[in-house]
């Protein structure tokens, strides 16, 4: 198993555990998961991902978890083809564009390549 796959598996398990926690503790646990598993990203980008996740969670519930795992896979440069809709690709494009000066060029190239492939440029 590749390290990125282990990270994504651990993230999925941790999100499941957080979802079982009392309602008042969930937001903190989700934020902790994002900080822990995406700690290699700039703090402001992690915060933006967290805000997007919270918004999706309030509207789409379980879909938010799938989005976060797919997004983490993309940032780990191990995208598995999980379906993201056009708006989600545009959201990802905007996040990467906003933080391109703080991200490694190979990561920016990888993500933007996926954005182009998925018609969101």
Keywords:
121 residues, mainly alpha, 6 helices, globular
Protein model, in words:
The chain is mainly alpha-helical and 121 residues long. It is 75% helix and 0% strand. The chain is built from 6 helices and no strands. The longest helix has 18 residues, at 3-20.
Question: What's the short version?
Answer:
This protein is mostly helical. The chain has helices at residues 3-20, 23-37, 43-60, 62-75, 86-98, 105-117.
Overall 3D form: globular
Compute the average pLDDT. Answer: 93
Strand content: under 5%
Helical content (DSSP H or I, runs of 4+): over 70%
Instruction: Give the low-confidence spans.
Output: none
Radius of gyration: 14 Å
The helix tally amounts to 6
SSE order, as H and E? HHHHHH
Structural class call reads: mainly alpha
What is the tally of beta strands? 0
Distance between the termini: 32 Å
**Main sheet, how many strands, which sense, barrel?**
none
Task: Chart the SSEs and their pairings.
Blueprint: H1 3-20, H2 23-37, H3 43-60, H4 62-75, H5 86-98, H6 105-117
């Amino acid at each position: 198993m590749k390290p990125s796959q282990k990270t994504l598996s651990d993230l999925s398990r941790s999100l499941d555990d957080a979802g079982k926690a009392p309602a008042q503790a969930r937001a903190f646990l989700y934020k902790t998961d994002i900080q822990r598993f995406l700690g290699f990203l700039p703090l402001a980008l992690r915060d933006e991902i967290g805000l997007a996740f919270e918004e999706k969670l309030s509207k789409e519930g379980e879909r938010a978890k799938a989005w976060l795992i797919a997004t983490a896979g993309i940032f780990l440069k191990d995208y598995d083809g999980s379906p993201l809709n056009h708006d989600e690709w545009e959201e990802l494009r905007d996040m990467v564009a906003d933080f391109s000066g703080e991200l490694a060029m190979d990561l920016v190239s990888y993500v933007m390549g996926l954005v182009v492939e998925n018609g969101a440029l």
